[in-house]
Amino acid sequence: MDSTSISLQHVTSLESAISLFWGSGRRIVQKERVFGGDINQAFRLTLSDGTHLFMKTNDKQNKCFFTAEAVGLAAIAQCRAVGTPHVFCAGTEEDGGGFSFLLMEFIQGAGRIRHYWETFAHELAALHQAPAAEFTGGGKYGFIQDNYIGRREQQNTVHDSWVSFFRDCRLEPQFRQAVHYFSTSDLKMVDRLLSHLDEILVEPEQPSLLHGDLWSGNVITGKDGKAWMIDPAVYVGHAEADLAMTELFGGFPREFYDAYREAASWQPGYESRRDLYNLYQLLNHLNMFGGSYLTSVKRILSFYVEN
Question: What is the pLDDT of residue 104?
Answer without folding.
Answer: 96
